[in-house]
Amino acid sequence: MKLFNQQLILTIFALMLISCGSGEDDNSSLIKSPASNSSATNSISGKAIDGYLSGSTVCLDLDDDGVCSSDSEPTNKTDNTGSYTLTLSTNHKAHSNFNKSSVIVYGGTDIDSNQSFAGKLKAYNNGNSTIHITPTTTLIDSMALPYADAKAKIADTFGIDEATIESDPIATNNATLFAKAVAVQRAVDLLVNADDSTDSNSTKANKIMTAIAAGLKSKTGSQSIDTIINSIDKTGLNSKTQNALKLAAQLAIATKDTYKDVTDRSDYAKISDTYFQDAKQVIIDNGLTEQITDAEIKAFEERVQQKEHSDNIKATIKGTVKDSDGKAYANRTVFLRDNVAIGNGNGGFYTTQTDDSGNYSFLIFSKGNYTLWLKLITDEQQTAPSPGGKNIVFNDTAEITTAGSVTTMDFVVKKPTQSVGTCPETEAKAIFCGKVFADKNGNNEFDTGEQVFKNADVYVQDLDNGGFYGPTTDENGDYNFAAYEVGKFKIWINAHVSYQSNVVLPVESDKSHYPFY
């Protein structure tokens, strides 16, 4: 076996950010007075709703730290309809914070969009046995007012009857409440993406919701959705988050206008996700070193309008991710590249995740050329379509004038066989392995004491054969990736750090190892 001792250096510069405060979140916004008769109930049930959240962690946060502790707090998971139940023990109800605590939810999957839920929602323990957790209840719980006043303020701001502001808008068919709530959450999600601090996404989401609530405190009467976002209290928000506010407000408008009712939520979620992905691309292109310009906002708005006025849904690309034995893979990422849009500088890079049955789908709004990739995990090999990725061309008008026309592309993969962080012997043509770290002294070598980045995504694109891969670093910052085809590969990193350059590596027909850092 021929071994190439070629070493490639990636110098990583970490941006060190220091934050003040203690615990996971600052949950002290609501001026909480004890809820009446809350100790009379032996359980709390309800729904967790962005769309309905499945597999999310939910608890009564008795110690007010924003984290569920199953050993001391009533904790459970939401089911596949977003429902949860918390059983309350005598000790729980005797806790000094019981009558002024919050029910919180984080993690899991939004079943409408089939996307992982990266935020955090909460609702005040108001003494009822049924408590739904939504973006609007989160704003109520985040406002520095007594509970009754906060509830009235958010109902007034949203133009919603106070009696329904804490309801399940899906079950009650309240499309207005649902559209506004989802619009706020999408804006928060975008601002979380803009925030380059080292806080967890749920902490960022909590901070942004609190800032929105603070900005609404002085408002009276029903407010437009963009005003709700633009009124945010900027105190404590970093500059990149502030620079993305106008775009977040425009995204909120596009999202609210998408949801016409609650019955077609899944289709609407896919449409609004294209807006979200476009907005994320604007952030990437801008870099947020300055405020997003009015011209960039206008271009985003025009792309939204173009999709809104297209002849409904032009086409659907869908498929399943499974192994060679037919076992489905849930929560796998599939990428869609709109080659025409990217060529014109109009964004066009989208992602979705497979559901519990391994299924995914994209809505296509116009004719063009599209490329799909499945994000593979370390050492996993894609066997269909071979060798990886697939171009799908919608350039024949007759193919796509019928709304709902469908193209199916299934991915089949082989299970990984090697461990992370090593350069093992393998049937692959080459192995890339290395470490992601902050090169503090600039010597292009890893030295004891330098920071490593665990759970960092290392992206690998097969430029010659197609295919998009995503090994993740282990707790030591190490990763590896097996290349099964001869060709050129581009490798880059996403770890909340900046990097010196992309790297293009040739893989020769002889087996070879490429260690790099």
Throw out a few tags for this protein.
single chain; 517 residues; alpha+beta; Immunoglobulin-like; eight-stranded mixed beta sheet; five-stranded mixed beta sheet; 12 helices; 27 strands; 26% helix; globular
What does this structure look like?
It is built from twelve helices and 27 strands. It is of the alpha+beta class and 517 residues long. The protein has three domains: 38-272, no CATH class; 313-414, Immunoglobulins (Immunoglobulin-like), CATH 2.60.40; 418-516, Sandwich (Immunoglobulin-like). The two termini are 23 Å apart. The model is unreliable at 1-24, 387-403, 417-422 and 495-517 (pLDDT under 50).
Please describe the topology of this protein.
Elements lengths: L11 E3 L28 E5 L5 E2 L2 E5 L13 E3 L5 E5 L2 H5 L7 E5 L2 E2 L4 E2 L3 E5 L10 H8 L4 H12 L16 H20 L6 H16 L8 H6 L8 H5 L1 H14 L6 H22 L7 H15 L6 E9 L9 E6 H5 L5 E5 L5 E6 L3 E9 L4 E4 L5 E5 L2 H4 L4 E4 L2 E4 L15 E6 L21 E6 L5 E2 L8 E6 L3 E8 L2 E3 L3 E5 L4 E5 L1
Parallel strand pairs: 11-18, 11-19, 15-22, 20-27
Antiparallel strand pairs: 1-25, 2-6, 3-8, 4-5, 4-7, 7-10, 8-9, 11-14, 12-13, 12-15, 15-17, 16-19, 20-23, 21-22, 21-24, 24-26
Helix pairs in contact: 2-3, 2-5, 4-5, 4-8, 4-9, 8-9, 8-10, 9-10
